[in-house]
Specification:
2 domains, seven-stranded mixed beta sheet, DNA primase, PRIM domain, four-stranded antiparallel beta sheet, Alpha-Beta Plaits
Length: about 300
């Protein structure tokens, strides 16, 4: 085996890895070995949030300054010990009727994905059962995407409003940074109709925009975005995915989509915390988990029926 390739044992599995010294984040000199190490160390809190959810990878084989591609049909690369599921394909997947996807369930699974330079892990708001059959959505997500001239401060102001509305509807919201420019607010839900979360999220986005049209937009046209935060309700479409909690983002500083507390949202909103403090690197995230545990404890949150929409 060439020096660029080697075999390692992770979690009791033999895994072939390669080009460990390759720099994937040039701005901070972050290597593939460090990417693998991060995913192995963050696994105890990341894995519960991707359990049962078919994964879409964003792969950056030449690092974040190179070309990237999304990959859903990833089972062909996988070792035999990685779980595979065959699910109906959304209409946009080049005419395929099904996709052979993977579900990440254990530490070696994450290490295997990281070795593919799958820097980002994206999952849907639904799970598959033991037979691989897609189930009804169990999460609601509202993606707050700041337009030009806005940022984390404006997202925190809107997240506070969203949190209050969701709580008033009997839900138990949690919040995280996107690891890029924005934030995401989630709530565990129960539904009998897979389109219900999209209808509810759209209605909520429209109501918030109507209340403060100078600050919030629910439509995605770029011309509408300057000075406003988009409430992207469309992430609840069952064909779409959202970056997982604790996933790296393919951004220059090797930042992470990081769960935060509502007290941190409040602190940014009232000016006692610099919005820049809600930008987290891998070392910071690992330290936060050591200190606070999993702030994105969806399993411990109250799961409630989604109000009619």
């Amino acid at each position: 085996m060439s020096p660029a390739k080697q075999r390692v044992e992770i979690g009791g599995r033999q895994l072939g890895v390669s080009n460990l010294e390759k720099v994937l984040f040039p701005e901070v000199g972050f290597t593939k070995a460090q990417v693998i190490d991060y995913y192995v160390r963050i696994a105890p809190v990341l894995l519960p949030h991707v359990a049962g959810r078919p994964v879409t990878f964003t792969r950056w084989p030449d690092g974040v300054e190179g070309q990237a591609f999304y990959e859903k049909n990833s089972a062909r690369h996988a070792p035999e010990w990685v779980r595979r599921v065959t699910i109906p394909s959304p209409g946009s997947s080049r005419g395929r009727e099904t996709l052979d996807m993977v579900v990440l369930e254990d530490v070696p699974d994450l290490a295997w994905a990281a070795n593919l330079a799958a820097l980002e892990v994206h999952v849907p708001q639904w799970q598959v059962d033991d037979d691989g059959v897609p189930q009804l959505p169990d999460l609601l997500v509202l993606d707050l995407d700041p337009g030009p001239e806005t940022g984390i401060l404006e997202c925190c102001r809107l997240a506070e409003r969203l949190g209050e509305r969701l709580e008033a509807d009997g839900l138990d919201p949690v919040v995280k940074t996107s690891g890029s420019k924005g934030m995401q607010v989630y709530a565990p839900i129960e539904v009998a109709d897979r389109e219900h979360p999209s209808r509810y999220a759209k209605q909520l986005a429209q109501e918030l925009s109507a209340e403060t049209p100078d600050d919030v937009v629910w439509r995605m046209e770029k011309v509408l975005r300057p000075g406003k935060v988009l409430v992207d309700w469309s992430q609840n479409n069952t064909a779409k995915t959202t970056v997982a909690p604790y996933s790296l983002r393919a951004r220059a500083g090797a930042t992470v989509s990081t769960p935060i507390g509502w007290d941190e949202v409040d602190a940014v909103r009232d000016g006692s915390l610099d919005p820049a403090e809600l930008r987290f690197t891998t070392d910071q995230v690992l330290a936060r988990v050591e200190e606070y545990g999993d702030l994105f404890d969806v399993a411990g949150a109250r799961r409630a029926p989604l109000p009619r929409a």
